[in-house]
Design a protein that fits this description.
The complex is a heterodimer. Chain A is mainly alpha-helical. In chain A, about 70% of the residues lie in helices and about 5% in strands. Chain A has helices at about 5-40, 45-80, 80-115, 120-150, 170, 175-205, 210-245, 245-255, 285-295, 315-345, 350-360, 360-375, 400-430, 435, and strands spanning about 155-160, 160-165, 265-270, 275-285, 380-385, 390. Chain A is globular, with a radius of gyration of 23 Å. The mean pLDDT of chain A is about 90. The longest helix of chain B is centred in the middle third of the chain and has 32 residues, at about 185-215.
Amino acid sequence: MDAVCLARLQFAFTICFHYLFPALSIGLAWIIFTFQSFYLRTGDEFYQTVSRFWFKFFTISFAVGIATGITMEFQFGMNWANYSRFVGDIFGAPLAAEGILAFFLESSFMAIMIYGANRVSKKVYWFSSLMVAFGSTLSAFWIIAANSWQQTPAGHHLNNGRAELTNFAEALFNHSTIIRFLHVIDGALITGGFFVVGLSAYYLLKKQHLAFAKKSMLFGLVFAFMASLLQFGLGHAHTIQVFRTQPVKLASFEGLWETRSEAPLLLFGIPDADDEETKYKIEVPKLLSYLSGNSADTVVSGLKEVPKEDRPPLLMTFLSFHLMVALGGYFLFISALGLFAFWKETPLENPRLLQLLFLSIPLPFIANEVGWIVAEVGRQPWIVYNLLKTKDAISVTLPAWQILTSLLVFVLLYSMLFCIWFFLIKRTLDHGPVSHSK
Amino acid sequence: MGTWQIIWFILVGVLLIGYTILDGFDLGVGFWHLFTTGEKERQSLLESIRPFWDGNEVWLLAGGGALFAAFPPVYATVFSGFYLAFLLVLFGLIIRVIGIDFRDKVDSPTWKQFFDYVFAIGSIIPSLLFGVALGNVIRGLPLSQQGDFVGTFFDLLNPYSLLCGVTGLFLLATHGGLYLMLKTENGLRQKIKSWVTISWKIFLALFLIVTLWSLIAIQRDGQWFSTAVSLLSLTAIGGIYFFHAKGKSVQAFTCSCLNIVFIFIAVAGALFPFMVRSINNPELGLTIYNSSSSELTLKIMFLLTLIGMPLVGVYTFYIYRVFRKSI
């Protein structure tokens, strides 16, 4: 394997692993904040117990998120020196801003939440939970803004062989920043919601901590349901933005080869990159045009608009996109079913539903990951869309064996981290909320 | 022209100094963690840094981010050039987080002992390698036309840089020990007091060798400046000993912080206007002028920093106040 391939593999591995944790932390942070708000308003210690319990999962995941996040900032310079030189004028600022404006906030209030419960007032504690949630969301904003500039660059010109900033606001709030930020945060809320729901279902199945588990599950279901519902609108709006600004990516979502109006929406099919056609198609006529531009006359670009070498890896983008959409539908369905059971006051009497909810915990993580695969693989061969190709972005004097070494180190280290994380999550779950609360 | 580059050269320096002073003490505590005995002592050490270490580490991320944003080619050259060294730094920083955060999650002596080692080793590796990296920066690197590092990994392990690494380790060990003098009591404090005295002596010896070596072997224009600042460092190092012997821990720790500031100023003086010097062809060196971002970016970053840093000051002050007594 060549250096570019190894460096890409390493980036894919480290970012996919890293992103398991921030998504969960952000979602949990807002749920914990909600419990804290109830506690502040009602003064009922029960809410404090609930909130402190879920906070334990938050801290474990947050630690892994920090540990694996440092890698990301180092990696741009280590593996992608030419990329760093090309985009630094624009891409560096959001990374620095993330540190200065978000991480300091997050880490300081995190310290209060972990160690300061007996040192600060209830209100300050509540405020800290808000700042932790806000800080982690803000940090996501800066990262999404930086990544969105790779997707839909704006506010720059090419000068001295690099992209130079001409308008900060345009670069920061480029065509895709806001919608992608909302889409990602909503995904995190779904992740947090299903995590709480799933673990509560585990207790209900085991008939442990019933009052606690019911309350947590209700909160989690409301979060998961609302976020899943919202995700339909956000996902749709994001797809329209992709249609407008990254037509080749959209064409690979749909396996659409020819540019046309009255484009159909694909329900099933297998795109074949070699034969340049999509096989075994089941389509809804005109729907893609209609969804993209509210009219059947909307012209949707096909993959053949660009030469073969400028198309993304097709099958991976295509499958990831459809898996993400299918999971989105499942989240709405299953959370609605859960809420319905609550409304009927029967959440305890349906072990199958509880099992299903428990087993659904990993699914939002998978949805987040495939969502990122859609975004990143779908942008290939470009690292910055239409400006810089991935193969030209590497650290050129870096020997491949060093990249391979670091890849192996990360695989081993992260596998260990995952086992420890899993073990601690399981342990926290087994200890339960009551015996462990202060 | 050039003012913004100088401002950012200083600001990146400030962030790195902030990192070294703040994360430096908790890295140093990690070093001493190896020498403590018994659960009580280990708890005291960990508790002295628990609420702070994460915020301290953010200074590195902020510094790295600022370097990326203000001087992208420098960030690119240094991070890709010091590839395996930075991989090890990452390895250390990652396992360290896990060591601190997960050690007390399970009540088993074996588990705790394992994570004690994880924490200590994870602290020592970066403490050592930051110095090696800085030594190489002072010395200069072989660069290609494009500004890429063209040496091998083993070129980075030259005697001068290795010595800088060991010096850095003892600098941080002393610094962390002085911090512990502020945060511990009774028997443990007595122990640490004698440890710091030893590590201070080792550091002083190493510092003198490195400084003389630098002044003799690495001839630069304007060397008087670095020499003068090194004398200030030496005064601060003397101050550490003086106050430490008298039991005035606050003053001793302050001297240690000042020493770190002076060391960075001396290094900055030796480099300026370069950030990475080229040892094969001086023309290829990366200066703050040929390697900066556009002026617009530098200005906007300055604005963000102007908004952000006072806030950082507020939270940092607040956290250190809330946790002024050990947890």
